[in-house]
Specification:
Layout (H helix, E strand, L loop, with lengths): L5 E5 L3 H12 L3 E5 L3 H4 L8 E2 L3 H5 L4 E4 L4 H11 L8 E4 L5 H13 L3 E4 L2 E2 L2 H6 L2 E6 L5 H11 E8 L6 H29 L4 H8 L7 H11 L10 H17 L5 H18 L18
Parallel strand pairs: 1-2, 1-4, 2-3, 4-5, 5-6, 8-9
Antiparallel strand pairs: 7-8
Helix pairs in contact: 4-5, 8-10, 8-11, 8-12, 11-12
Length: 295
């Protein structure tokens, strides 16, 4: 039988709520906190204890799991929470954050005697709800037995990358992977927009590439959301995609690499958000191809 843990889940948005529910299904004790308490409240019906503050949530927890908006938010919340955490508790950081933020988190963990794991996840709403995320993990081998049952509950598999969590090896791989995902998302939107502008039936394009080396399931999945107006609830929101695209370009620039596609994708997501699509699925970047009045 899987050993159970007391897990503090900080951040119960699209991803965090699904992860919390799968932890509960696996028999773990879950204490959930979200800045907007109403987003955490539904978890009470599944057996979670809803905390009024991050400090309350992490008290006596074996594992603290952070799934917040960005690295800055994680640091802000954990600076409040860490002093209340049990010395020796594990901190699994699953937010997609910048490389410098991960280094700061590792330092904060050391200050408070926490064992830090850089553990971003691959997947969106549906995999999070189904417990089918892929966990990319970096952290000390000693102590992995504490976080492994947690990763097993939220993910289909865990890929251990490094023992050095402060080097952000897992986050580096996550940013590389997300660069491909966001580029593909932008490409789907542009091909649909061009088809509309040239009065081409998108099905003709789909038929042309179907089954060949240019075909991919992601193309059909994201195109379906646009063509059939199924952009809510989002699997991954436009505003979050913009944030990730900017993290990718910033990381590249710091290492002397220019990513023109990622930079353009960030601007597309920003335009779509400005048009009112910030909380829709990132496929709504499609609308960035048009003037706001036409969209």
């Amino acid at each position: 039988m899987t050993e159970t843990r007391t897990v503090s889940v900080l951040g119960t948005g699209i991803m965090g709520s699904g992860m919390a529910r799968n932890l509960l299904k696996a028999g773990h004790t879950v204490r959930a906190w979200n800045r907007t308490r109403a987003k955490a409240e539904p978890l009470a019906a599944d057996g979670a204890r809803i905390a009024d503050s991050p400090a309350e949530a992490v008290r006596d927890a074996d594992v603290v799991l952070t799934m917040l908006y960005d690295g800055g938010t994680v640091l802000e919340v954990m600076r409040e929470a860490a002093p209340a955490a049990r010395s020796g508790a594990a901190w699994a950081q699953s937010t997609t954050a910048g490389l410098e933020s991960v280094g700061e988190m590792a330092g904060l963990a050391r200050e408070h005697g926490l064992v830090f794991y850089d553990a971003p996840v691959l997947g969106t709403r549906q995999p999070a709800e189904a417990g089918q995320l892929i966990v990319l993990a970096a952290g000390p081998a000693e102590g992995r037995d504490v976080v492994t049952p947690v990763f097993d509950a939220v993910g289909a598999r865990t890929t251990w990358i490094s023992q050095d969590s402060a080097a952000a090896a897992a986050t580096r791989l996550k940013l590389v992977t997300n660069s491909w995902v966001l580029a593909a998302t932008a490409a789907v939107g542009e091909v649909l927009a061009l088809a509309k502008a040239l009065d081409v039936d998108p099905e003709g394009f789909f038929d042309l590439v179907r089954g060949g080396p240019l075909d991919m399931g992601y193309l059909h999945a994201k195109a379906d959301l646009v063509l059939n107006d199924r952009l809510t609830p989002p699997s991954f929101a436009v505003k979050t995609a913009e944030k990730d695209a900017r993290l990718i370009t910033e990381a590249a620039e710091r290492h002397g690499v220019r990513l023109d596609v990622a930079r353009a994708a960030a601007e597309r997501f920003a335009r779509a958000a400005a048009q009112g699509h910030a909380d829709e699925d990132m496929a709504a970047a499609y609308f960035a191809s048009f003037d706001e009045k036409r969209a």
